[in-house]
Design goal:
The complex is a heterodimer of chains A (141) and B (407). With 141 residues, chain A is of the alpha+beta class. Chain A contains 6 helices and 5 strands. Chain A has a single domain, classed as SCP2 sterol-binding domain (Nonspecific Lipid-transfer Protein, Chain A, 2-Layer Sandwich), CATH 3.30.1050.10. Chain A is 43% helix and 18% strand. The chains are: A alpha+beta (141), B alpha+beta (407).
Chain lengths: 141, 407
Amino acid sequence: MTTAVATRAEFEALLDRVLSLVSSDPEAGPRLAAADVAERVEIQDLGLVLNLASDPSTGRGLRWEFSDDIDWRPHLSLAMDSDVANRYLQGKENFAIAVARKRIRVSCGDARAALRLLPVYRPVFERFREVVERDYPQLAV
Amino acid sequence: MADRITIAEAARRAGVSAATLRRWQEEGIVPLTDGEWTEAAAAQARVIARMRERGHSLESLKRASAEGRLAFGYAEDLFPPTEERVTVDEAAKQTGLEPELVERLMRLLGTPVLREGELNQEDLGAMEHCARVLETGFPLVAFLQLVRVYAQSIRKIADAEVRLFHIYVHEPLIQDGIPAIEMAEQIEGMAGELLPIAGPMIDYLHARYLRFFIEQDVVGHMEVDLAEGSSGRVSMAYCFVDLTGFTRYTEEEGDEEALDMIERFVETVQATLPVEATIVKTIGDEVMIVSADAATLTEWAVGFLALFQERPQPRVGIHYGSAVFRDGDYFGGEVNLAHRVVTRALGGEVMVTRDIVDAMQDSAYIEFHPIGRVSLKGFPEPISLFVARPASPTAEQQLVEETEPEV
């Protein structure tokens, strides 16, 4: 295990900000919502859990919770440390290679979920990089 | 309001006599708006004249016209060919190219004007571009390959534009029972707005991909290619990925769902590939990828397959070797071998040859399980094959994981 790149509160605030931006983006929000994939991400070294899914109330954005207290079931579960998450979300860590190197652990009960989600993930990386550059420059890689 | 034209002008455009047009009008083969000839009606007449030459009966054309099936012919008017023509010899004289080279370039471009032995002004313009490229000193052998790649790629784009327009615009209008001339005008309006966008889009994508590949070249991922470049051969890792059980999946889920699955599959391959790897082509549910870096490509394949724990599961075959690079594709026995290797993999397996194992001897992440020497179709000697899997944790790593406190 490596040293965490941020505190749990910092990383949660960063992810919350990025997801708010992506969800309200007129292009990215609907595209991610249309993928209709519920995803669970665990940042292991911070003990942080994020569950996100399409927002059924609008059908055009996302809903997310930083806990497992949710009323939906994830199709895709990822687990990684914060340094890997930080690099992956800035587009600096190849997802599949990280899986092969066991830096990201993946559990995917529905292959179609991965096929729907991964091709539309790019806006998340872009927003993450923007927020890091502006508000969390110490996390830039 | 549609532009009205005289019957003489309509006859000139359609390439038939005015008397023929009157007969087609009376028999309802070319419907007119308020009895007036318009550009749309002349375009319909031109299509009908062409179909008559191909042997279609007036009765069948009358039915097709009434249903609006000929309405897309009007869109041809958006790209009127220039009428002034020159012979091959004149084109050669004007451009400084040899007549044989003009003919060869025109054949590569897929332009069938050579049947008439003449080029129009657009063809001549294209030959002038070619001459300028060759004047820069760019080798002819490479340029001829480039021209073939340009022609094949653009042909595919134009074919897709027309087919998709037909499926998603023209057919729905026919289903809605829109009158033929009104339909032709609607199609012309939409096509007139859409088709000119293709040029700037292609320019944008070309610039973007050119930047990407120049960057790849500059950062040194092509050192081996450059060393072998003069012979036209390159050493790369060749990877084929396909979906097992796809035929059954198509039967069970239907063509549309299966097509969606293929599109998402190819998009996911594209979205997850390491930057130095490139998709060369897709054939149905099969994707061909190349990379100068065999190790990261193999790691990608192992990680990628971890996403698919249920059918239809992909399988992968990878081999490293030397092949001929021509027309944007890779050819030769080593490529054929990679293609054969994937057929021996089961769903969820990454099957590789010894060349990949040798290139990754020191990998801390991937281990290789030999399955023995396997006979592959077209190869006289059995080939040693291995299944690539994530490396098992070492005893030391296991101890760390077991003793690590929970957060």
